[in-house]
Amino acid sequence: MDELLLKDAHEMRELLSNRSISAVELLTAHIEHIEQVDAHVNAIITTCFDVAMDQAKAIDDLGEKTGLLTGIPIPHKDLVATKNLRTTHGSTLFREHIPDTNDYIIDRMQRAGAITIGKTNVPEFGAGSHTFNRVFGPTKNPYNLERTCGGSSGGAAVALAMRMAALADGSDLGGSLRNPASFCNVIGFRPTNNILPPSLTADHSRNLASLGPMARDVDSVALLFEALRSDHPVSELPRLEAISLEGLRIAFTEDFDALPVVPEIRAIVRDVAAKLDEAGAIVEEASPDFGGARDIFQTLRGLSFRNRYDAFTPREKTELKPTILWNLALGISIDDEDLNRAQMERIALNKRIETFFQHYDLFVGPTTQVLPFPIPIEWIREIEGVQMNTYIDWMESCSWVTTTECPALSMPAGFADGLPVGVQLISRRASDSRLLRIAKSIESVISSASVLPDILCGD
Question: What is the pLDDT of residues 91-103, one digit of tens each?
Answer without folding.
Answer: 999 999 999 999 9
